[in-house]
Amino acid sequence: MYPRKLSLNMLAIDKPLPDIQVTDSARSIEGASEEVNRQRFIDQAWKSNLTLQADDLSKTERTVSSIIQKTSDVATESYSAYESVNSFYAANQAVFAAAASSIVNLNGDSTLIDVTMSTFAEYCPVILRGLDSLSQLHPFIGIATKAFSLVIVMDAARRENNKKVIALKMQMQDMMLVLFDLRRVKDPEERDPEGNTFQDRMGALLKKIAEDITECGSACDHYLKKSFVAKTLKSLKYESRLAKYGDKFTKHRQQLKFALTVHTALGVDSANTKLDSLSSQTESLQLTMSSILRKLDTPREKESQAFIENHGGPEACLQDNQLIKELIKISGEGLSSITLHRTGDDAMDMTIAREKLTREYARDLDQAFDKNLQLFQRKMEAQEKQLQTFFQDSLHTEAEHIISALTAGAHDRLVDVDMQALWKDNDWKGSVKARHFVLALQDFYSDKMSGSKGSIVPPILPTLLPEPPLSPVPLSAASTVASADWAVTSLPRDDSWALRYIGVAHVQPILEAVDDDGTGFVSIKEVNTFATSKPNGWSLPVWIAYWAAGWQVGLTQYKAKIHAVIREMYKIIDYDTRAESPQDKRALRANRKLIDQYLDDDVFHRIDLLLRSLHPAKTRVQDAKLKQVIDFYTSSEQIRLEGYLEGVAYDIDTPATVPLVTGPGRIERFIMPFIYLLLKRHLKVFYIARTHVLDPEEFGDLTSSLENVFSALDERIASLEAIFKQTVPDVAKRLGNYAFGLLQLSYGDRLRKPNKNSLSPWEEDSSNIDVESEGEDDDEIARIPLSILKYGVKDTLESQIYKHSISTFDYNDNNPDTSRHFLSGYWAGNLWTQDWEEFYSTQGLFQISITNVNDAGEITGVAEAYQGLLTVSGLITSENHVRLVLLYEDKDLVTCEGSWNSERNVLSGTFTTGRLRKRKRKAIANDAASSNTSTTKVTRKKKETTTFLFTRTPAFAWRFHTPFGQLSTTPRARWAFACNAVLDLVRRRSGSWHYLRNRTGERTRFLELLVRREVEDCSPSNPLSAEEGKEHRVMLATIHPTDARFYYSLVPSIIEATYTDHLDCSCSKCDKTIIQSRLICLTCIRNDLSRGLDFCLECLELSKNTKGYKHVPSHAMLKVDSVILDGLLAWAIPEARHVATRVKRVFRTKQSRINEAQQEGTKDARPKKSKRMETMCCCCGKEVNTPCWVCLFCMLSDGPASWHEHKDHLIRIHDAEEAEELSATDAKLSLVENRLVGVENQFIEFKGVVNERLSQLEDTLQKILLHVVPNDSPSQ
């Protein structure tokens, strides 16, 4: 039972009671009951009496009084929580009523739904505060209220407001509102007749509610992270899963109401005979979440869903690039929402987007939710730790805030004593100009320092040493850097040294540190925030000194660290061609393209802009005390960030995750260590990539983490832009003076200009910062756990091709019983083409499984060929005329027209090929009933005969038919076919050496021919000869479709491992994709190196005239055999030009001496030895003349270097002629011309608009005149 409040007559007091003044805290509370107000008055009187008589009590009386006081305190605390909840509820009853009816409003019209959605964000803070108070009264419900609060708070940071997610949160809120009926339950621990408490009965239910809230929050988080197209394609699946959570919350709500009803029915709480019903309207409303979600589709979602339905469903849309393109256009998001990397080829980008959407559509949703739940729980833990840290930091100043709020002076609202004095001395009100505030600081501390003999440390603080920060999760081994120094190092107590940094020279950084919103005015709240954010034990002058002179040094240090990490990445992928990098320390070839795409992503351009934008510290820190402060704070902040990053597994999946890691405050304070720690983690993934094959999605997620950090930074820049536009005309210039210029280049035009890129593979000279290597030794690398990978390793080849084929195609199913149609079962055969010179298999050997033939003769089934799986549809007529339509996943189409021969049990006829044209897939079977071939585009060449032949013969036996590809007709041929087929079957089942050797040889040769055929459109290439082409087609006609499909699936990996992919760079002359050596013209390239002419080796000696450039073979060209990134390109092009000029001058000098020798009549026209200039090959030692190749790196010295490697970049010197500069001039003139044309077009358009508006104005004036002056007026 709830403890009875103590009253004055419980203790015999032999002295008269003094007069008691009724304070504000004992006055009546509006809305509270008379009993509550009376008891508050008695409490105040009781406390006043005990205080006044404490000195007059005996020792025994004091002991008794102490016991009574403790009992009273416990009772008062419980009663205060009870009173607080009911008072809060009474004060906000209108909000609770509106929130309770919100779920009902979702059944209304669109206008009511929009209004209800918009008010959800307004009601939520009130509900959360109420639940917090309620959990203090009844701590056992905290498990559910905490989960609900964390999910709502985490989602509040998102910019995207999805109606379906909000509806789910409203359903969740409706369930939680039932808990407010507990506000009148006074003692949940009192037992019923069976010995159970209300808390016991509710415990399991509340735990389940907390779990479902967390899972629902994770599902919504996963849903919101997906692109619009991905969500629309799986809309039915997503809505089904999300609706289940809504129905769960409805069920939990009913269970909560039932538990409360049982509690009342048992008579446990006699004072609460009737519980409130916050949402009684929903009791009679039978509304499921699925019906609500269907009503919340936006017009764009409805349009997309209709488009998908009209084109055959999600599976059909995912097979056509054009349909995906239309969907992306409807979504309004663009390709960037789906693909992380743009190749520059729109068709290829669309194919990549379609493939990614296909994988996303096929991914099991339950598994995806389970995987995201782990990350979401970590994010919730990080959010909870931040809230705990925030409350802990706020508790120690709560008393000061309460006291100062009751006083009249504005200065009393300040937490820090020094700031109170400064504010009072200057008679400032609520805010002051930031510059005035900073300038007043120096005078204030100068005066105080002179009067305190050099120390202004508050006496209650034992040391200036900052305590180790609270970590939300156990820190990794790497997080313990500097942790050993906490106990043994201390800063000097004399902080007079800090005064020199509080002055005019450091006005701007101090101003920015205090003026957090950048408005130019410092408010009391901002000063309190700044003062309370200092590390434990630091005085305010030391804290100010750090931001005045130490923060810039810290930024400069992180700039050097980031450069060092990127250099280590270059070493692993072996971009540093001058470094000795053993083969075992380079990234695997299978990971090379993934790493190239990662390093070439625009996010590294953003990193470069950030680093170049920073104004680094110009000199080393000479002040040992300042350096100690910098090291302390930098290390502690890094450890803190590292702990939170560990908590979210370094996966910044959305911009909303960024503040979970950094905590409150300006992001520019954390951006540099944040990026450094992320890159440091990514470097570990690079180390793993040296010995393990990684999943392609791994590097995509690494890139996304960095992109989300910069998205959060862009939000901050947009906020500053809005503020600065009110005070200055040039925002970019203003950002150049803000935060040491850190954000300047990230604002406005962010076009890539490689000539300015600073991410060089080599260490830059820096005399101000000591740069240490960020690399790890072999032992440290060996200890890197594979668990840091999100998708694990792919060292083993995992393919489902054989498993699927075995379960789908049964060659024994070739004689269906009478219960099935005679066409049902297994078939195999080829599509044959006979042209004027050859008879060959068009698309290789097929195997088909016809699964069903209905009474109408409609055929369905599946098929397999080396290029992939196919769906089979068609029709067989009563005359045994057969039409089959074989449809590939990419919508390529084969239409077979023929008949079934009952005697020979074969299908034969003719075929055509084409593509399905924006038709529903279900229409294919209908088309099969007629001879209409509108769905296909015939690709048959003239004088070609196309036929097909399918039999019941197993696919593995087709290679033994003679002659080539035809059925055996003579008895001898049939006998030979049977013998060979059976022998092959026996060898295959026994795994004989003969069979394995032949199979291996066949696979090797087939893959070789396949790869060469696939790269025929690339340069350089080795096209198949006529004989090799015929050999390739024979192998296609005989190799089992499953084997051929498996081999074909290996081709992309083999190409990536064999050839160098220059990220889809194509030759400017032949337009072929360059896959080996890329030649960059040193003359035909823009000054910013963003665009120029590239050539393949086959076009080396060819000219190219294009708009802005006139390329001739005499131009020097840089040959690169690996992807050259912007940082290396910025160095390589100027150096290559210098080397080319120097080498050409050498050859001209050599030629001039030869000419002089000819004029002098020297024998063999060679100059004398003293005048001879030799140009020798460093490999063979022979004399070299133009055209020739010169090593870029070896020529950096005075002569040929001994360390030349074949992977070094080379310069092509065609002749000794000086390079012309006309191309660059032509490019500039072309650019100016294009701009003039654009201006002219804009002027013409503007002129048309002006003329139209003038005409409208003239018509308007004419109408006015007609009204003012009538037509029949005599004056006219």
Automatic annotation (TrEMBL):
Domain of life: Eukaryota
SUPFAM superfamilies: RING/U-box
Biased composition (Acidic residues): 762-776
Positions of region (Disordered): 757-776
Name under which the protein is recorded: EF-hand domain-containing protein
